[in-house]
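haha ok so turns out i had the wrong file open the whole time. this is the CORRECT one, sorry everyone. sequence first:
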Amino acid sequence: MSRVAVIALLASVVGAGEVAGQAALSFERYLETVEPIFLVDRGGWGPGRAPCVTCHAEQGTPLRLQRLRETAEGEVYWSEEDSRRNFEVVSRLVRPGDPDRSRLLREALVQSAGGAAIHVGGKFFESKSDPEWRAMAEWVAAADPVEPPSLPSLDYEFFRDCVQRVYLDKRPGDVECVHCHESGTRGFARPIPEGRDFWNEEETERNFAVTRRYVEPGEPMMSRLLTHPLAPAGGGDYFHGGPRRWASTEDPEWQMLAAWVRGETPACVVGEGYR
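then structure:
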């Protein structure tokens, strides 16, 4: 092959690479086909029934949507700025070019069709043929693949020796976390067998596995473990069946857990703080 031909071949390869790397997730397509899905009435209130926004604008979940605005006529909407913020959040929950590995698409899809095992809000999509699921999948598939950012690791030993102590610590006037979270899908603090006052290694590993469902590594304010017991005035969720353990994010214990979620190993300050 001549030198000219080699140069031409290299130029064509480089050019193709530049073009291939330019297709990002489209905000315009998101606005037209994806965001409206979050407003669809699922038939009433209750698990698997209410629109996505009912829970996801009020709860500290990875899909933390902006609150809806309302016109004088009672119509609800998001401003363009709101939608762009939603777009940033939603984009973190997809793998560009790979719908099947995107959390956004797996959460509400039934497990038999490749969905996640648990979605607190219920399962809306019975198969990947569902028009709404396909609309989201096509939006994700149209973007070029991007290597996902590395997430911080949660320190298991810190969880074992410190985080679990939060579950047992009783603040004045409140009940312990373990009082409500000892069973079910939210059972991250299973009962301690009689004769012991703490969990053994096997029990701790089980608690850790469940706790991880409520933690978004690197994102304390998207982690329900930190937002559910946080007072609404301090940025917490508007509903929590139990007490509000922290009045604000300035509480030393809350900051300790936030540091752990960010991948750090802070000093253990369980029981310290104020209401």
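Confidence is low (pLDDT under 50) at residues 1-21.
again sry for the mixup
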